[in-house]
Amino acid sequence: MTTKEATYTYALRLGDDALILGHRLSELCSRGPILEEDLALTNISLDMIGRAQALLKYAADTENNGNTEDDIAYRRAENHYYNHLLVEQPNGDFAHTIARQLLISVFEYLFYTELEKSRDENLSAIAKKVTKEVKYHMQHAIDWTIRLGDGTNESHKRMQTAINDMWMYSGELFEMDEVDQYLFREGVAVDLIPLKAHWQNRIQTVLTKATLVTPEDGYMQTGSKKGVHSENLGHILSEMQYLQRSYPDAKW
């Protein structure tokens, strides 16, 4: 493995997370529970898609074989996407959307804060911009988790169910494979192992304020770093890639 190959894979994974979650949140445009929240989720989606563009462009530039960020985003098979399983989960009801956003945004805030220190100038620059955005994403999810968890009996029950349902996808956020380990030794990547304790403490604090119970760690879904996904990703791609696959050489 070379640094170039590892960096390409690393940027691709980060870009895929942003791309798929951005698409998921975009599905809520005009479908939010209230107008203000419809706009908030759409704006978060736009942040994610902008991040995806930056990261996938860097991946394309690093690979340097003629592909653009659009080619990478729209012309890969399902098993060549490497986003975490968490971000491809369906929106469900509003509680599930917020639970997913809480778990991933707290992780991303911690992750990108550390990635700012990367020796890779491109990743560091992207991280500095992302940290500012994801701080808002995180606070938005925290506020709604507390509001729903410490709200009515119905909202409390739905929020607890959503946290329970999403929890099994949180474990792989902290998995380190050979790409992560190689780039960490090079001063490029983030060491995910120590992040877990910080993430757990922040999540525990939020759930306690929301009068919710933190699920126990049990069976955790994994496989995304090897291109293994739930059936949900295939449904996302069938919609997201439809136009490109129908008119692959179209010029707008």
Description of the structure:
It is built from 10 helices and no strands. It is mainly α and 252 residues long. The chain has a single domain (3-246), classed as Ferritin, core subunit, four-helix bundle (Ferritin), CATH 1.20.1260.10. α1 (3-26) crosses α7 (178-185), α2 runs antiparallel to α5 (121-149) and α4 (94-115) runs antiparallel to α5 (121-149). The radius of gyration is 18 Å and the shape is globular.
CATH fold descriptor: Ferritin
CATH class label? Mainly Alpha
Radius of gyration from CA coordinates = 18 Å
Structural domain tally: 1
Q: Characterize the overall form.
A: globular
Based on DSSP secondary structure assignment, what is the total number of beta strands?
Answer: 0
Structural class label: mainly alpha
Name the helix and strand elements from N-terminus to C-terminus, one letter apiece: HHHHHHHHHH
CATH structural architecture: Up-down Bundle
Mean pLDDT figure: 94
pLDDT under 50 segments (min length 5)? none
What profile does the largest beta sheet have?
A: none
How much β-strand is present in the residues? under 5%
- What's the tally of helices? 10
List keywords for this structure.
252 residues, mainly alpha, Ferritin, 10 helices, 65% helix, globular
